[in-house]
């Protein structure tokens, strides 16, 4: 209970590790999670430390593992994960793991490179085949136009078809053709550029491919256009080629005649079939390599991370004068000192060292780190508290009380039976299946957050069910479980229902009010026109009561810190003024709420003063006669307000003045002129050292201040 209330008692220990067994010893300590290491080389840069080369090797293995994981995921191969994390490898096995990873990376990169080369060749051959099929349609369409019309696309060609180009040499002008594929988004710009640059000495024919092909640059499937450019002259041809290069067109050679076209198509089909066979075998072999690597990838990743962590910790250690022994300083829980000794002995045994590593506890004046042990139930609440800040060593741990206060205050705000029940069922299912691998290894951030806070959600839902019953609210609807305590028929004789739009239920009429609803708010309020104002008033008063109680409880917890650190002056100068200030103002407000509930009934409720007006008048001191709850109320309020105002200067200046008096040697404080010298910073540091010796606590509500009196004016420095 003491460790849960304040955290684990800690001590500073010094480890003496033999150079040959330091790795195995730290591996055992790390597996058991027994210590927090201190950096004994704060002035040495990261690149000048002893084990920087080993850390670089681990980073290189992490890079290889990242590449392997990427390739395995790309191949849609599941990554197996073990239930138990493997330990760090022994020092003699590290070189073997490094060689395996390098060999696997080399083989995988070579196979992947060959596969990509084959896929690229296959894509080029496929594009070439599609281009020949589409351009064949161009030729047939041109030939049919020569048979059925007098129009000639090339006047000097007489009636010969475009498919035979040798006849063009009779004119002394060389006719050339360039064919290929262009991206669908570049067709219009490509056509305009050809027209402007070549000045009409080209004829462009293009058509869209029926199927989508892969873009070799992006790897995405997209639409392509097949084009055929006819031109005259070598100079025009050079311009066309440059334009094709500019627009990243895939240009392929165009056959001169039908026989050559047929031979090219047959050769392409044979090569495509062979490439499919080779590519299929390459992919099978690549998948086999990746499947074999996936069996060990989980173990390798965990082992390399632990290796890197061990070498990072070794860099925090310092060598003795003989360079044969490493010295480390660690913070360790007092209860785990024996386990730490066993871990060092086990590490020395695994390494085969003749001299075992050992440890000694050393005294220190430095404040230890805070360690609070948690389990799967308390970890969620502890994370909520740690999000606002981790307390100093020895302070009271508020997470123990947050287990109740946080879900309950949430339920006060939420307060719905139906929604709370859904939250409770959801959290209960996650708890029942908390060992399921999909829940434990989920990569979704929202799901991970909900799973880690499943016990918080469980209590939030359970308390919401309770407050929902108090509010009589289930999915924003009231439930009439026990029957209403109000009787409407008794009002028929008192009111004329035909002349009144609303029926006011008067509890003073006999038979109208038969008693309180057994649990929660009466369901008849759901039908009332003043339902919202009544419920808001009820919830507001209840929230004020819970809020003041919660804040007062937090202030009272500070007393345990003051007593633990033996700083009793904080009780008189911090705790009591805070408590008096809160009780004289907000505590009195809670008192008026309960007094009005108890002192006034339904018979005289119309004459009851307003709590809000009474609270405002407490600060304004209105003249004349005002409505009061009881005799002597004004005098009591002025007395409480005077105590609250007197508590303010004590909270602000009481502790600083006392520390200044303590620092001055108890000689008292002399009001007058005092020069602030350059040595005042040293005085401030001395004061802080004295405060550390007395014990430090950040849970004090007041601010630590050092006070200098200059000409009767108080100057405060944080």
Task: Give structural notes.
It comes from Accipiter nisus (Eurasian sparrowhawk). Its main location: membrane. Keywords: Coiled coil, Hydrogen ion transport, Ion transport, Membrane, Transmembrane, Transmembrane helix, Transport. The protein is an alpha+beta fold. It is 54% helix and 10% strand. It has helices at residues 2-6, 22-32, 52-74, 94-148, 187-198, 234-246, 258-316, 337-351, 379-388, 399-414, 417-432, 437-440, 445-452, 454-471, 531-564, 569-599, 611-620, 633-663, 680-694, and strands at 10-18, 36-37, 175-183, 202-208, 213-214, 221-222, 224-232, 250-252, 318-319, 325-333, 358-362, 706-710, 713-717. Strands 1, 2, 9, 10 and 11 form a 5-stranded antiparallel β-sheet that branches. A 4-stranded antiparallel β-sheet has the order 4-7-3-8, sandwiched between helices. A two-stranded antiparallel ribbon has the order 5-6. A hairpin with a 5-residue loop joins strand 9 and strand 10. Helix 11 (417-432) runs antiparallel to helix 14 (454-471). The longest helix has 59 residues, at 258-316. The radius of gyration is 43 Å and the shape is extended. Residues 143-172 and 668-718 have low confidence and may be disordered.
Can you give keywords for this protein?
single chain; 718 residues; alpha+beta; five-stranded antiparallel sheet; extended
């Amino acid at each position: 209970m003491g460790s849960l209330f304040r955290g684990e008692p800690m001590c500073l220990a010094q480890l003496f590790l033999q150079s040959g067994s330091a790795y195995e010893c730290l591996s055992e300590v790390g597996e058991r999670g027994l210590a927090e290491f201190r950096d004994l080389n704060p002035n040495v840069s990261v690149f000048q430390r002893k084990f920087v080369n080993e850390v670089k090797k681990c980073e290189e293995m992490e890079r290889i593992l990242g590449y392997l994981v990427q390739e395995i995921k790309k191949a849609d191969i599941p990554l197996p994960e073990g239930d138990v994390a493997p330990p760090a490898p022994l020092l003699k096995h590290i070189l073997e793991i490094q060689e395996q990873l390098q060999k696997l990376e080399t083989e995988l990169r070579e196979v992947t490179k060959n596969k990509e080369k084959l896929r690229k060749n296959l894509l080029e051959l496929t594009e070439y085949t599609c281009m020949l099929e589409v351009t064949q349609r161009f030729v047939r369409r041109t030939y049919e136009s020569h048979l059925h019309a007098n129009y000639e696309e090339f006047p000097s060609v007489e009636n010969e078809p475009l498919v035979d180009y040798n006849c063009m040499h009779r004119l002394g002008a060389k006719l050339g053709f360039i064919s290929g594929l262009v991206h669908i988004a570049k067709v219009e710009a490509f056509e305009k550029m050809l027209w402007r640059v070549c000045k009409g000495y080209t004829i462009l024919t293009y058509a869209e491919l029926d199927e989508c092909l892969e873009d070799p640059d992006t790897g995405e499937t997209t639409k392509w256009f097949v084009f055929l450019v006819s031109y005259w002259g070598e100079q025009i041809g050079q311009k066309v080629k440059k334009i094709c290069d500019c627009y990243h067109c895939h240009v392929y050679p165009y056959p001169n005649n039908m026989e050559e076209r047929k031979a090219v198509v047959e050769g392409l089909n044979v090569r495509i079939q062979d490439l499919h066979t080779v590519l299929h075998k390459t992919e099978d072999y690549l998948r086999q390599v990746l499947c074999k690597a996936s069996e060990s990838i989980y173990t390798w990743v965990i082992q390399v991370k632990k290796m890197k962590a061990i070498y990072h910790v070794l860099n925090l250690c310092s060598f003795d004068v003989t360079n044969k022994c490493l010295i480390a300083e660690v913070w360790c829980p007092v209860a785990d000192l024996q386990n730490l000794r066993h871990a060092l002995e086990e590490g020395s045994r695994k390494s085969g060292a003749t001299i075992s590593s050992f440890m000694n506890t050393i005294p220190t004046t430095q404040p230890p780190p805070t360690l609070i042990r948690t389990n799967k139930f308390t970890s969620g609440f502890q994370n909520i508290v740690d999000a606002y800040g981790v307390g100093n060593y020895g302070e009271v741990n508020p997470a123990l009380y947050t287990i109740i206060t946080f879900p309950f205050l949430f339920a006060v705000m939420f307060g719905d039976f139906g929604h709370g029940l859904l939250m409770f069922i959801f959290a209960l299912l996650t708890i029942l299946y908390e060992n399921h691998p999909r829940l434990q290894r989920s990569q979704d951030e929202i799901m991970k957050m909900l799973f880690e806070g499943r016990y918080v959600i469980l209590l939030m839902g359970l308390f919401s069910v309770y407050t929902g019953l108090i509010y009589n609210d289930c999915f924003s609807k009231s439930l009439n479980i026990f029957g209403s305590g109000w009787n409407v028929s008794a009002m028929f004789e008192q009111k004329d229902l035909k002349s009144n739009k609303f029926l006011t239920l008067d509890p003073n009429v006999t038979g109208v009010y038969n008693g309180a609803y057994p649990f929660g708010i009466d369901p008849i309020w759901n039908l009332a026109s003043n339902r919202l104002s009544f419920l808001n008033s009820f919830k507001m008063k209840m929230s004020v009561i819970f809020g003041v109680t919660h804040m007062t409880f937090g202030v009272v917890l500070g007393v345990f810190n003051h007593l633990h650190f033996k700083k009793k002056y904080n009780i008189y100068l911090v705790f009591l003024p805070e408590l008096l200030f809160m009780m004289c103002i907000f505590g009195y407000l809670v008192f008026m709420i309960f007094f009005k509930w108890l002192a006034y009934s339904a018979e005289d409720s119309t004459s009851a003063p307003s709590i809000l007006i009474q609270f405002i008048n407490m600060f304004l001191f209105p003249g004349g006669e005002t409505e009061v709850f009881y005799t002597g109320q004004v005098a009591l309020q002025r007395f409480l307000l005077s105590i609250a105002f007197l508590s303010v200067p004590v909270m602000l200046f009481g502790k600083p003045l006392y520390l200044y008096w303590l620092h001055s040697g108890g000689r008292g404080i002399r009001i007058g002129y005092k020069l602030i010298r350059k040595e005042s910073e040293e005085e401030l540091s001395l004061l802080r050292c004295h405060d550390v010796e007395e014990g430090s606590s950040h849970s004090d509500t007041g601010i630590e201040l050092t006070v200098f009196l200059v000409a009767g004016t108080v100057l405060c420095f944080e």
